[in-house]
Design brief:
The protein is built from 12 helices and 14 strands. It has about 375 residues and is α/β, with parallel strands linked by helices. Strand 6 and strand 7 form a beta hairpin. Bound molecules: pyridoxal-5'-phosphate.
């Protein structure tokens, strides 16, 4: 067997995977309608519940074939009763995506927007809920992957429940990294895709949610066929299968990834991501980069920094220099600001980050960027 080159992905997913996960995809051909395959998916769905400590009596995991955005689409279009509204607590690009989904489906919604570098004002959330008794879904993003800001989900979920709304959280960039307890965190629905925290491959996404609310949604207006939560859930309940063709190879990879997840352990894995994050943050701090999010609000998985004001700064060139040497860095996702990101996802550790900074410094030097980096415009972060 030839060895597969190891690449260090510092982009916000897909993440660096182990060779055992890569190789788990190479299996004899199988028709996914076979009982053998349905059995594999049943085990996978149970294991996904364990990742967020969900009671299988109360919660279920519904699988979809698609990238992570399919989960946002599914939850928003499927869980809104007639005559009700969605409240989106929006402080970043991923919650903005949920707003766009509401716009595309013409779903009544309130876009409660805050600055991308600020935590939501909880008083405003409370006021909005109090003033609109037709809100039945409160929605937010756990870790805003564009900036690395951590939202206070437990508090938001509690507020939602006090106002008889369900709480839907996009946990795509925390699940299987930052520990989540679905019940204690007041979550009714969370979600992720296989290629981020689980360190598997692209093409499989899943919603973990309260069975009772899924059952209730049978009576709600149907707004999509392929992306309807109840339809997919019901098919799983009846047959143990996805309604349509599943991403077969990705499912094999995810089953292996889950084995490796439980072997590493929730706490040990979170500690590893945390030390990788700190190594990344220390590295950019030492080089003088200004971070987008203050320390106390960081989710501990994404480092986002502003471009320095140096005429020699050229992100594309620096990216290419690193990429040619096996390290992938990623631009930011904040409209109107020039930022880039280094992420602590995937099967990597601090030695990889030390190796990265050697290459990154050489990239800056090769472009003639002054180190420590310089900022002319003051007040970016003040
Ligand atoms: C990655 C990500 C998604 C999904 O993005 P896709 O490109 O569809 O995989 C959704 N929400 C968050 C917070 C993410 O980090």
């Amino acid at each position: 067997m030839s060895t597969i080159a190891r690449k260090i992905l510092l982009n916000p997913g897909p993440a660096t995977t182990t060779d055992t996960v890569k190789m788990a995809q190479v299996v004899p051909d199988i028709c996914p309608r076979e009982k053998e395959f349905a059995g594999l998916m049943a085990g996978l769905r149970k294991d996904l519940l364990k990742v967020v400590h969900a009671d299988p009596e109360k919660y279920t995991a519904v699988l979809f074939c698609g990238s992570g955005t399919i989960n946002l689409d599914v939850c928003l279009n499927s869980l809104l009763p007639a005559g009700k509204k969605v409240l989106i607590v929006n402080n970043g690009a991923y919650s903005q995506r949920a707003v766009e989904i509401c716009q595309y489906y013409h779903l009544p919604h309130i876009n409660l927007a805050f600055a991308f570098d600020q935590r939501p004002d909880m008083n405003k959330v409370e006021e909005t809920l109090a003033a609109n008794d037709d809100i039945s879904i409160v929605y937010t993003t756990h870790n805003e992957t564009g900036t690395g800001l951590l939202n206070p989900i437990r508090e938001l979920g509690d507020m939602a429940h006090h106002h008889n709304a369900i709480f839907v959280v996009d946990t795509t960039s925390t699940l299987a990294m930052r520990p989540i307890d679905i019940q204690k965190d007041n979550i009714d629905f969370c979600m992720a895709s296989a290629q981020k925290g689980l360190m598997a491959m692209t093409g499989l996404s899943f919603v973990i949610g309260n069975r009772l609310y899924i059952e209730k949604s049978k009576e709600y207006p149907t707004r999509s066929y392929y992306c309807n939560l109840y339809l997919q859930y019901e098919y799983f309940e009846k047959t143990g299968e996805m309604h349509f063709t599943p991403p077969v190879q990705t499912i094999y990879a995810t089953i292996q990834a889950l084995k490796e997840y439980f072997a590493e352990g929730e706490q040990a894995k979170w500690e590893r991501h945390t030390r990788v994050f700190h190594a990344l943050q220390r590295g950019v701090d030492e080089l003088g980069f200004i971070s987008v999010i203050p320390e106390e609000w960081r989710a501990g998985l994404v480092v986002a920094v502003y471009y320095p004001d140096d005429p020699h700064w050229d992100f594309e060139k620096i990216h290419d220099y690193c990429y040619e040497r096996g390290f992938t860095i990623y631009p930011g996702k904040i409209s109107g600001s020039n930022t880039f990101r280094l992420c602590a996802l995937g099967s990597i550790d601090v030695d990889d980050i030390a190796a990265f900074f050697k290459v990154f410094k050489a990239a800056l030097a090769s472009c003639g960027v002054a180190m420590p980096v310089q900022y002319q415009k003051r007040g970016l972060c003040e």
